[in-house]
Protein backbone atom coordinates (compact mmCIF):
# COMPACT_ATOMS: atom_id res chain seq x y z
CA UNK A 1 0.00 0.00 0.00
CA UNK A 2 1.39 3.45 -0.85
CA UNK A 3 2.10 5.77 2.06
CA UNK A 4 -0.61 8.37 2.71
CA UNK A 5 -0.82 11.60 4.63
CA UNK A 6 -2.03 11.03 8.22
CA UNK A 7 -5.60 12.00 9.03
CA UNK A 8 -6.21 15.40 10.63
CA UNK A 9 -7.89 15.30 14.05
CA UNK A 10 -11.30 16.96 14.05
CA UNK A 11 -12.18 20.02 16.06
CA UNK A 12 -9.51 22.44 14.86
CA UNK A 13 -10.39 26.12 14.60
CA UNK A 14 -9.45 28.51 11.79
CA UNK A 15 -5.97 29.99 12.37
CA UNK A 16 -5.71 28.52 15.89
CA UNK A 17 -6.09 24.85 15.01
CA UNK A 18 -6.14 22.68 18.13
CA UNK A 19 -4.27 25.21 20.29
CA UNK A 20 -7.29 26.12 22.51
CA UNK A 21 -7.80 22.45 23.40
CA UNK A 22 -4.10 21.95 24.16
CA UNK A 23 -4.14 24.94 26.50
CA UNK A 24 -7.47 24.39 28.25
CA UNK A 25 -8.07 20.59 28.28
CA UNK A 26 -4.99 18.87 26.86
CA UNK A 27 -5.55 15.38 28.28
CA UNK A 28 -9.22 15.22 27.31
CA UNK A 29 -8.22 16.28 23.80
CA UNK A 30 -5.42 13.72 23.59
CA UNK A 31 -7.81 10.96 24.68
CA UNK A 32 -9.77 11.51 21.45
CA UNK A 33 -6.80 11.09 19.10
CA UNK A 34 -6.23 7.29 18.87
CA UNK A 35 -9.62 6.88 17.20
CA UNK A 36 -8.36 8.91 14.22
CA UNK A 37 -5.13 7.07 13.48
CA UNK A 38 -1.56 6.45 14.54
CA UNK A 39 0.01 8.79 13.61
CA UNK A 40 -2.64 11.50 13.58
CA UNK A 41 -2.13 15.14 12.58
CA UNK A 42 -2.97 18.08 14.82
CA UNK A 43 -2.51 21.80 14.14
CA UNK A 44 -1.08 24.32 16.61
CA UNK A 45 -1.58 27.67 14.96
CA UNK A 46 0.19 27.41 11.58
CA UNK A 47 2.29 24.39 12.62
CA UNK A 48 1.43 20.74 12.22
CA UNK A 49 2.37 17.98 14.64
CA UNK A 50 2.06 14.21 14.29
CA UNK A 51 0.97 12.35 17.42
CA UNK A 52 1.80 8.65 17.84
CA UNK A 53 0.72 6.42 20.71
CA UNK A 54 0.99 2.78 19.62
CA UNK A 55 3.82 0.62 21.01
CA UNK A 56 5.34 -0.05 17.58
CA UNK A 57 5.20 3.53 16.32
CA UNK A 58 6.56 4.94 19.59
CA UNK A 59 9.37 2.37 19.60
CA UNK A 60 10.25 3.20 16.01
CA UNK A 61 10.45 6.94 16.64
CA UNK A 62 12.47 6.64 19.85
CA UNK A 63 14.99 4.12 18.48
CA UNK A 64 15.55 5.40 14.92
CA UNK A 65 18.31 7.88 15.73
CA UNK A 66 19.05 8.70 12.09
CA UNK A 67 15.48 9.38 10.99
CA UNK A 68 14.34 11.25 14.12
CA UNK A 69 16.36 13.72 16.20
CA UNK A 70 15.95 16.20 19.04
CA UNK A 71 16.11 19.28 16.84
CA UNK A 72 13.76 21.96 15.57
CA UNK A 73 11.90 24.92 17.12
CA UNK A 74 10.50 22.92 20.05
CA UNK A 75 13.89 21.81 21.30
CA UNK A 76 15.24 25.31 20.74
CA UNK A 77 12.70 26.49 23.32
CA UNK A 78 13.65 23.73 25.75
CA UNK A 79 17.37 24.36 25.33
CA UNK A 80 16.84 28.03 26.21
CA UNK A 81 16.12 26.72 29.72
CA UNK A 82 17.98 23.41 29.99
CA UNK A 83 20.83 24.19 27.62
CA UNK A 84 22.36 21.33 25.67
CA UNK A 85 21.86 18.86 28.52
CA UNK A 86 21.41 15.12 28.42
CA UNK A 87 17.62 15.44 28.20
CA UNK A 88 17.63 17.97 25.36
CA UNK A 89 20.79 17.54 23.27
CA UNK A 90 20.76 16.26 19.66
CA UNK A 91 21.65 12.61 19.14
CA UNK A 92 25.16 13.50 17.94
CA UNK A 93 26.04 14.91 21.39
CA UNK A 94 24.19 12.34 23.46
CA UNK A 95 26.68 9.40 23.64
CA UNK A 96 29.53 11.59 24.91
CA UNK A 97 27.37 13.36 27.51
CA UNK A 98 25.79 10.12 28.70
CA UNK A 99 29.21 8.51 29.24
CA UNK A 100 30.14 11.47 31.43
CA UNK A 101 26.89 11.64 33.45
CA UNK A 102 26.17 7.90 33.84
CA UNK A 103 28.80 7.26 36.59
CA UNK A 104 26.96 9.69 38.87
CA UNK A 105 24.08 7.17 38.98
CA UNK A 106 26.02 3.95 39.44
CA UNK A 107 24.28 1.58 41.89
CA UNK A 108 26.98 1.87 44.56
CA UNK A 109 26.11 5.56 45.09
CA UNK A 110 22.34 5.11 45.55
CA UNK A 111 22.46 4.18 49.28
CA UNK A 112 24.35 7.42 49.91
CA UNK A 113 21.77 9.45 48.01
CA UNK A 114 18.98 7.63 49.87
CA UNK A 115 20.20 9.12 53.15
CA UNK A 116 19.40 12.58 51.79
CA UNK A 117 16.00 11.31 50.62
CA UNK A 118 15.10 9.97 54.07
CA UNK A 119 16.36 13.06 55.88
CA UNK A 120 14.52 15.37 53.50
CA UNK A 121 11.22 13.53 53.91
CA UNK A 122 11.57 13.49 57.70
CA UNK A 123 12.27 17.23 57.80
CA UNK A 124 9.27 17.98 55.60
CA UNK A 125 6.82 15.89 57.62
CA UNK A 126 8.01 17.47 60.86
CA UNK A 127 6.34 20.67 59.65
CA UNK A 128 2.91 19.07 59.10
CA UNK A 129 0.22 19.35 61.75
CA UNK A 130 -2.98 17.39 62.27
CA UNK A 131 -5.88 19.10 60.52
CA UNK A 132 -3.75 21.84 58.96
CA UNK A 133 -4.23 21.83 55.18
CA UNK A 134 -1.16 21.20 53.03
CA UNK A 135 -0.86 21.46 49.26
CA UNK A 136 0.50 17.99 48.54
CA UNK A 137 1.67 18.93 45.05
CA UNK A 138 3.69 21.85 46.36
CA UNK A 139 5.03 19.84 49.31
CA UNK A 140 6.21 17.04 47.01
CA UNK A 141 7.98 19.58 44.82
CA UNK A 142 9.64 21.18 47.87
CA UNK A 143 10.86 17.77 49.00
CA UNK A 144 12.28 16.56 45.72
CA UNK A 145 13.89 19.91 44.92
CA UNK A 146 15.59 19.88 48.32
CA UNK A 147 16.83 16.33 47.72
CA UNK A 148 18.03 17.17 44.21
CA UNK A 149 19.94 20.19 45.48
CA UNK A 150 21.34 18.23 48.43
CA UNK A 151 22.59 15.31 46.34
CA UNK A 152 23.88 17.57 43.58
CA UNK A 153 25.50 20.30 45.66
CA UNK A 154 25.95 18.54 49.03
CA UNK A 155 26.13 20.84 52.04
CA UNK A 156 27.89 23.58 50.08
CA UNK A 157 24.68 25.41 49.10
CA UNK A 158 23.24 27.99 51.47
CA UNK A 159 19.51 27.59 52.30
CA UNK A 160 18.67 30.95 50.68
CA UNK A 161 20.48 30.00 47.46
CA UNK A 162 18.67 26.65 47.41
CA UNK A 163 15.30 28.38 47.82
CA UNK A 164 16.11 30.86 45.04
CA UNK A 165 16.91 27.98 42.68
CA UNK A 166 13.69 26.19 43.65
CA UNK A 167 11.60 29.33 43.08
CA UNK A 168 13.18 29.97 39.67
CA UNK A 169 12.66 26.34 38.66
CA UNK A 170 8.97 26.53 39.56
CA UNK A 171 8.44 29.60 37.34
CA UNK A 172 10.39 28.07 34.45
CA UNK A 173 8.48 24.79 34.52
CA UNK A 174 5.18 26.65 34.45
CA UNK A 175 6.32 28.82 31.56
CA UNK A 176 8.04 26.38 29.22
CA UNK A 177 4.88 24.42 28.25
CA UNK A 178 3.15 27.67 27.28
CA UNK A 179 6.13 28.62 25.10
CA UNK A 180 6.18 25.22 23.43
CA UNK A 181 2.53 25.36 22.33
CA UNK A 182 2.36 29.17 21.97
CA UNK A 183 5.72 30.54 20.72
CA UNK A 184 4.28 34.06 20.59
CA UNK A 185 4.25 34.09 24.40
CA UNK A 186 7.80 35.45 24.27
CA UNK A 187 6.74 38.31 22.02
CA UNK A 188 4.03 39.75 24.26
CA UNK A 189 5.11 42.27 26.96
CA UNK A 190 3.15 40.59 29.76
CA UNK A 191 3.95 40.19 33.48
CA UNK A 192 4.25 36.45 32.84
CA UNK A 193 6.97 36.99 30.24
CA UNK A 194 8.88 39.27 32.63
CA UNK A 195 8.65 36.69 35.42
CA UNK A 196 9.84 33.95 33.09
CA UNK A 197 12.82 35.93 31.82
CA UNK A 198 13.77 37.01 35.33
CA UNK A 199 13.59 33.40 36.54
CA UNK A 200 15.70 32.24 33.59
CA UNK A 201 18.37 34.84 34.39
CA UNK A 202 18.28 33.93 38.10
CA UNK A 203 18.60 30.24 37.25
CA UNK A 204 21.65 30.66 35.01
CA UNK A 205 23.32 33.09 37.43
CA UNK A 206 22.71 30.82 40.41
CA UNK A 207 24.09 27.72 38.71
CA UNK A 208 27.14 29.61 37.41
CA UNK A 209 27.90 30.95 40.90
CA UNK A 210 27.70 27.47 42.44
CA UNK A 211 30.04 25.98 39.84
CA UNK A 212 32.51 28.85 40.27
CA UNK A 213 32.50 28.32 44.03
CA UNK A 214 33.18 24.60 43.64
CA UNK A 215 36.06 25.26 41.27
CA UNK A 216 37.56 27.87 43.58
CA UNK A 217 37.47 25.61 46.62
CA UNK A 218 38.76 22.57 44.74
CA UNK A 219 37.13 20.19 47.25
CA UNK A 220 35.64 16.83 46.33
CA UNK A 221 32.44 16.76 48.37
CA UNK A 222 31.40 13.35 47.06
CA UNK A 223 28.24 14.74 45.45
CA UNK A 224 27.03 14.77 41.86
CA UNK A 225 28.63 18.10 40.99
CA UNK A 226 32.00 16.90 42.27
CA UNK A 227 31.67 13.82 40.05
CA UNK A 228 30.81 15.97 37.04
CA UNK A 229 33.75 18.29 37.69
CA UNK A 230 36.09 15.31 37.81
CA UNK A 231 34.57 13.53 34.80
CA UNK A 232 36.51 13.14 31.57
CA UNK A 233 35.39 11.92 28.16
CA UNK A 234 37.18 9.26 26.11
CA UNK A 235 39.70 11.88 24.96
CA UNK A 236 40.46 13.00 28.50
CA UNK A 237 38.53 16.26 28.19
CA UNK A 238 36.42 17.65 31.08
CA UNK A 239 33.04 19.25 30.56
CA UNK A 240 33.26 22.82 29.34
CA UNK A 241 31.78 25.52 31.61
CA UNK A 242 28.52 25.79 29.66
CA UNK A 243 28.24 22.00 29.31
CA UNK A 244 28.61 21.65 33.06
CA UNK A 245 25.88 24.22 33.70
CA UNK A 246 23.61 22.44 31.20
CA UNK A 247 24.04 19.08 32.93
CA UNK A 248 23.32 20.67 36.32
CA UNK A 249 20.07 22.15 34.96
CA UNK A 250 19.03 18.78 33.54
CA UNK A 251 19.82 16.87 36.73
CA UNK A 252 17.94 19.30 38.97
CA UNK A 253 14.91 19.13 36.67
CA UNK A 254 15.00 15.32 36.46
CA UNK A 255 15.58 14.94 40.18
CA UNK A 256 12.92 17.42 41.24
CA UNK A 257 9.99 17.69 38.86
CA UNK A 258 9.59 14.12 37.62
CA UNK A 259 9.80 12.52 41.07
CA UNK A 260 7.57 15.12 42.71
CA UNK A 261 4.86 14.48 40.09
CA UNK A 262 5.01 10.71 40.71
CA UNK A 263 4.80 11.22 44.48
CA UNK A 264 1.99 13.79 44.35
CA UNK A 265 -0.13 11.61 42.05
CA UNK A 266 0.49 8.57 44.25
CA UNK A 267 -0.63 10.35 47.42
CA UNK A 268 -3.83 11.51 45.74
CA UNK A 269 -4.65 8.16 44.13
CA UNK A 270 -4.14 6.30 47.40
CA UNK A 271 -6.43 8.75 49.21
CA UNK A 272 -9.16 8.09 46.62
CA UNK A 273 -8.92 4.26 46.76
CA UNK A 274 -9.56 2.78 50.21
CA UNK A 275 -8.43 -0.76 49.36
CA UNK A 276 -5.11 0.46 47.99
CA UNK A 277 -4.69 2.65 51.06
CA UNK A 278 -5.39 -0.31 53.35
CA UNK A 279 -2.76 -2.46 51.61
CA UNK A 280 -0.22 0.34 51.65
CA UNK A 281 -0.73 1.05 55.34
CA UNK A 282 -0.53 -2.63 56.23
CA UNK A 283 2.80 -2.96 54.42
CA UNK A 284 4.46 0.15 55.83
CA UNK A 285 3.21 -0.62 59.35
CA UNK A 286 4.69 -4.12 59.21
CA UNK A 287 8.03 -2.98 57.75
CA UNK A 288 8.59 0.43 59.31
CA UNK A 289 6.57 0.42 62.55
CA UNK A 290 6.36 4.21 62.47
CA UNK A 291 9.94 5.10 61.58
CA UNK A 292 11.05 6.72 58.28
CA UNK A 293 11.84 4.42 55.35
CA UNK A 294 15.50 3.84 54.52
CA UNK A 295 17.44 2.34 51.64
CA UNK A 296 17.57 -1.14 53.19
CA UNK A 297 13.75 -1.18 53.44
CA UNK A 298 13.17 -0.96 49.69
CA UNK A 299 13.18 -4.75 49.02
CA UNK A 300 10.51 -5.13 51.69
CA UNK A 301 8.10 -2.52 50.23
CA UNK A 302 6.84 -4.20 47.04
CA UNK A 303 3.28 -2.88 47.25
CA UNK A 304 4.52 0.66 47.84
CA UNK A 305 6.64 0.32 44.70
CA UNK A 306 3.64 -0.93 42.74
CA UNK A 307 1.64 2.14 43.80
CA UNK A 308 4.39 4.33 42.32
CA UNK A 309 4.49 2.20 39.16
CA UNK A 310 0.76 2.52 38.65
CA UNK A 311 0.81 6.27 39.25
CA UNK A 312 3.60 6.54 36.66
CA UNK A 313 1.48 4.50 34.22
CA UNK A 314 -1.60 6.68 34.61
CA UNK A 315 0.27 9.98 34.71
CA UNK A 316 3.76 9.56 33.21
CA UNK A 317 5.91 12.61 33.99
CA UNK A 318 7.38 12.60 30.46
CA UNK A 319 3.87 12.49 29.03
CA UNK A 320 4.80 13.72 25.54
CA UNK A 321 8.26 13.09 24.04
CA UNK A 322 8.99 14.76 20.72
CA UNK A 323 11.36 14.18 17.82
CA UNK A 324 11.87 15.94 14.48
CA UNK A 325 12.19 13.98 11.25
CA UNK A 326 15.57 14.47 9.60
CA UNK A 327 14.35 13.41 6.15
CA UNK A 328 11.10 12.40 4.42
CA UNK A 329 10.06 9.14 6.01
CA UNK A 330 7.26 6.64 6.34
CA UNK A 331 5.76 5.65 9.68
CA UNK A 332 3.08 2.95 9.96
CA UNK A 333 2.04 3.57 6.36
CA UNK A 334 1.92 7.33 6.82
CA UNK A 335 4.07 9.78 4.86
CA UNK A 336 5.93 12.37 6.96
CA UNK A 337 7.95 15.24 5.47
CA UNK A 338 11.44 16.24 6.59
CA UNK A 339 11.32 18.59 9.55
CA UNK A 340 8.01 17.21 10.85
CA UNK A 341 7.45 17.35 14.61
CA UNK A 342 6.46 13.89 15.89
CA UNK A 343 5.07 13.65 19.43
CA UNK A 344 5.23 10.26 21.16
CA UNK A 345 2.35 10.48 23.65
CA UNK A 346 3.31 8.15 26.50
CA UNK A 347 0.17 9.21 28.36
CA UNK A 348 -1.91 7.57 25.61
CA UNK A 349 0.45 4.63 25.14
CA UNK A 350 0.15 3.59 28.78
CA UNK A 351 -3.65 3.77 28.68
CA UNK A 352 -4.23 1.60 25.61
CA UNK A 353 -6.88 -1.03 26.52
CA UNK A 354 -5.17 -3.79 24.53
CA UNK A 355 -2.11 -3.34 26.75
CA UNK A 356 -3.76 -2.57 30.09
CA UNK A 357 -7.26 -3.91 30.85
CA UNK A 358 -9.44 -1.22 32.47
CA UNK A 359 -6.79 1.34 31.51
CA UNK A 360 -8.27 4.24 33.46
CA UNK A 361 -8.52 2.29 36.72
CA UNK A 362 -5.94 2.66 39.49
CA UNK A 363 -4.80 -0.91 40.16
CA UNK A 364 -1.28 -1.32 41.61
CA UNK A 365 -1.65 -5.10 41.60
CA UNK A 366 -1.53 -5.13 37.78
CA UNK A 367 2.26 -4.91 38.31
CA UNK A 368 2.37 -7.87 40.71
CA UNK A 369 2.92 -10.72 38.23
CA UNK A 370 5.08 -10.56 35.16
CA UNK A 371 5.33 -6.79 34.97
CA UNK A 372 3.90 -4.53 32.26
CA UNK A 373 3.59 -5.55 28.59
CA UNK A 374 6.74 -5.07 26.54
CA UNK A 375 6.88 -1.64 24.96
CA UNK A 376 3.74 -0.47 26.76
CA UNK A 377 5.25 1.10 29.88
CA UNK A 378 7.90 3.77 29.28
CA UNK A 379 7.68 6.35 32.11
CA UNK A 380 11.42 7.07 31.85
CA UNK A 381 11.67 6.95 28.07
CA UNK A 382 13.16 4.22 25.93
CA UNK A 383 16.32 3.26 24.11
CA UNK A 384 19.58 5.17 24.25
CA UNK A 385 17.88 8.31 25.58
CA UNK A 386 16.18 6.59 28.52
CA UNK A 387 16.70 8.57 31.74
CA UNK A 388 19.88 7.35 33.51
CA UNK A 389 18.47 8.42 36.87
CA UNK A 390 15.40 6.16 36.81
CA UNK A 391 16.54 4.10 39.82
CA UNK A 392 17.30 7.30 41.73
CA UNK A 393 13.81 8.65 41.09
CA UNK A 394 12.01 5.41 41.88
CA UNK A 395 13.93 4.95 45.13
CA UNK A 396 13.10 8.49 46.24
CA UNK A 397 9.41 8.15 45.40
CA UNK A 398 9.05 4.82 47.22
CA UNK A 399 10.94 6.02 50.31
CA UNK A 400 8.89 9.22 50.49
CA UNK A 401 5.52 7.50 49.94
CA UNK A 402 6.26 4.84 52.56
CA UNK A 403 7.35 7.44 55.12
CA UNK A 404 4.30 9.64 54.51
CA UNK A 405 1.90 6.67 54.64
CA UNK A 406 3.46 5.41 57.86
CA UNK A 407 2.84 8.75 59.59
CA UNK A 408 -0.20 10.32 57.95
CA UNK A 409 -3.54 9.52 56.35
CA UNK A 410 -4.38 12.21 53.78
CA UNK A 411 -7.87 13.37 52.85
CA UNK A 412 -8.82 15.87 50.11
CA UNK A 413 -9.73 19.23 51.62
CA UNK A 414 -11.85 20.29 48.65
CA UNK A 415 -14.43 18.37 46.58
CA UNK A 416 -13.91 17.39 42.98
CA UNK A 417 -11.15 15.74 41.00
CA UNK A 418 -7.61 17.02 40.63
CA UNK A 419 -6.99 18.85 37.39
CA UNK A 420 -3.65 17.87 35.79
CA UNK A 421 -1.34 20.73 34.89
CA UNK A 422 0.69 19.94 31.76
CA UNK A 423 4.13 21.44 32.10
CA UNK A 424 7.30 19.86 30.72
CA UNK A 425 6.22 17.20 33.21
CA UNK A 426 2.60 16.13 33.77
CA UNK A 427 1.90 17.36 37.29
CA UNK A 428 -1.30 17.49 39.32
CA UNK A 429 -2.49 20.98 40.02
CA UNK A 430 -2.83 22.33 43.54
CA UNK A 431 -4.35 19.68 45.77
CA UNK A 432 -5.06 20.80 49.33
CA UNK A 433 -5.25 17.82 51.67
CA UNK A 434 -5.82 17.33 55.39
CA UNK A 435 -3.25 15.19 57.24
CA UNK A 436 -4.69 12.84 59.86
CA UNK A 437 -2.06 11.42 62.19
CA UNK A 438 -1.59 7.64 62.28
CA UNK A 439 0.96 7.86 65.13
CA UNK A 440 1.18 9.52 68.50
CA UNK A 441 4.24 11.66 67.80
CA UNK A 442 6.44 13.16 65.12
CA UNK A 443 8.35 11.05 62.65
CA UNK A 444 12.00 10.74 63.63
What would you say this structure looks like, in words?
The structure is a single chain. This protein is α+β, with helices and mostly antiparallel strands and 444 residues long. The chain has two domains: 1-82 and 320-378, Cytochrome P450 (Cytochrome p450, Orthogonal Bundle); 91-318 and 383-444, Orthogonal Bundle (Cytochrome p450). 48% of the residues lie in helices and 11% in strands. The protein contains 15 helices and twelve strands. Strand 10 and strand 11 form a beta hairpin. The longest helix is centred in the middle third of the chain and has 32 residues, at 241-272. The chain is globular and about 60 Å long. It holds the Pfam family p450.
Q: Say how many strands there are.
A: 12
Q: Taking Cα atoms only, what radius of gyration do you get, to the nearest Å?
A: 22 Å
Beta-strand proportion: 5-15%
- CA-to-CA gap between the ends? 66 Å
CATH superfamily of the largest domain: Cytochrome P450
Q: Structural class of the helix and strand makeup?
A: alpha+beta
CATH fold category name of the largest domain: Cytochrome p450
InterPro entries: Cyt_P450 (IPR001128), Cyt_P450_CS (IPR017972), Cyt_P450_E_grp-IV (IPR002403), Cyt_P450_sf (IPR036396), Cytochrome_P450_Monoox (IPR050196)
Keywords: Heme, Iron, Metal-binding, Monooxygenase, Oxidoreductase
Pfam family, one: p450
Protein name: Cytochrome P450
Amino acid sequence: MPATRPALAPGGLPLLGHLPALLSRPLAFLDTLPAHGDPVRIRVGPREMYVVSGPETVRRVLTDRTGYDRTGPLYAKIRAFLGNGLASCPHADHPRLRRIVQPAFRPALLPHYAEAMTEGTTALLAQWREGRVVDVTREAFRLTTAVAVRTLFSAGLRPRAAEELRAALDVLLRGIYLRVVLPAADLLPTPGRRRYRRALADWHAGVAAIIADYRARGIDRGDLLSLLLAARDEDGRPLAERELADQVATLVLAGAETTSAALAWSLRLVAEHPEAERKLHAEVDAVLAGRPARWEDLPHLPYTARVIDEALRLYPPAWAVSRTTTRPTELAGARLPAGALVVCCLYLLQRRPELFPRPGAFDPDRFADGGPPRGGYLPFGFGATKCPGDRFGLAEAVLALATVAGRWRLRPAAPGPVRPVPRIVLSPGPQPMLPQSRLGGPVG
